[in-house]
Amino acid sequence: MAETSQDLDALKQEILTQVAAAPDAQALDAVRVAALGKKGAVSELMKGLGKMSPEERKVMGPALNGLKTALTDAITTRAAALQEAALEARLATEHVDVTLPVMPEPQGSIHPVTQVMDEIIAIFADLGFEVKEGPDIEDDFHNFTALNFPLGHPARDMHDTFFFPANEKGERKLLRTHTSPVQIRTMESQKPPIRIIVPGRTYRCDSDQTHTPMFHQVEGLVIDTETHMGHLKWCLEEFAKAFFEVDDIRARFRPHFFPFTEPSAEMDIGYTRKGNEIRVGEGKDWLEILGCGMVHPNVLKNVGLDPDVYQGFAFGMGIDRLAMLKYGIPDLRDFFAADLRWLSHYGFAALDAPNLATGLSR
């Protein structure tokens, strides 16, 4: 029996030495399995208790249980020490030196077109409008015919359209000349009431100080059973006040012609010029900013709506020109020249998202 006790002491010292020498959690777990696992050294000794006499079990039982407890405690203590050491090593490699200089200011800025588009969306979203988008490549029906431009209509010539080659049926796709086709697509797929704005790129064969072959427009459409010109006037006056960030604005609506609206009008706002600065809301001069009108009954018929039941208004304006007017940009062509000096001067901070609560612009 004394020899067996010595064997247990030797086994205990051997395993404790292995526990103390384990370099990481994985090695420590291997020691645990070899000692206390189902086929471990201590477990095999525990299985032999059933073959011993009662006198031997009285001695070996407590001895083996004490060995198992001592080894378990040693392994638990070593595991905690290894975990703490691993955490200390990780913290040593991931520390932050607060004395280092801060990161440089972010480079780049928001383009004025994007800024103004976001400002317009923020205003009309507050008025309950939904934003819609559509394809840049259109067919003749959605770009012209459905909008009351019949074949041969002289107003088609006003648009200087980019046409694609004709297909086998003689049909020619085109780059949309306005964002109005999205109005048609919306009325085809959605029942009134409708209240949308449509910002996006448009294309016409024209290029000078105030025209580019590709430019940006936003159009609005309201269709229901009760809307009239008074609602249109109020909506656009509220937009102008919010966009130019003035408390009051002078506006007038002059008769005009658009194939897709009847009656049609152009909206002028009052302004004055002080030096090179244009001040909206002051003075006695007038500046045209957009076109609008009541949706033509033929347009409603073309999308399957009864003009005796439904009516509404539409408007459209150039985003690029609004940006020029609000932020004093003299030449439209500079918008697309990719000049970093121009962009750094007229650009906007990326995190200054336009909203009506804190102000649209910087």
Structure overview:
The protein is an alpha+beta fold. It has two domains: 2-93; 112-346, 2-Layer Sandwich (BirA Bifunctional Protein, domain 2). It is 40% helix and 20% strand. The protein is built from eleven helices and ten strands. The protein has helices at residues 2-21, 25-36, 41-47, 54-93, 112-126, 140-143, 180-189, 229-244, 297-302, 319-327, 340-346, and strands at 130-131, 137-138, 174-175, 194-203, 214-224, 251-258, 261-274, 277-280, 285-295, 311-318. The strands form two sheets. Strands 1, 4, 5, 6, 7, 8, 9 and 10 form an eight-stranded mixed β-sheet that branches. A two-stranded antiparallel ribbon has the order 2-3. Helix 1 packs parallel to helix 4. The longest helix has 40 residues, at 54-93. The model has no long low-confidence stretch (mean pLDDT 87).
- Level of helix content? 40-55%
Low-pLDDT regions? none
**Through-space gap between termini:** 91 Å
CATH superfamily of the largest domain: Bira Bifunctional Protein, Domain 2
Q: Name the shape in a single word.
A: elongated
Largest sheet: 8 strands, mixed
Number of strands: 10
- Reading the helices and strands in chain order gives HHHHHEEHEHEEHEEEEHEHH
Instruction: Report the CATH C-level class of the largest domain.
Output: Alpha Beta
Could you tell me the CATH topology label of the largest domain: BirA Bifunctional Protein, domain 2
What CATH architecture of the largest domain do you see?
2-Layer Sandwich
Number of domains as seen in the coordinates: 2
Q: What average pLDDT do the residues reach?
A: 87
Structural class: alpha+beta
Radius of gyration of CA atoms, rounded to a whole number:
39 Å
Continuous helix count = 11
Report the sheet-strand fraction. 15-25%
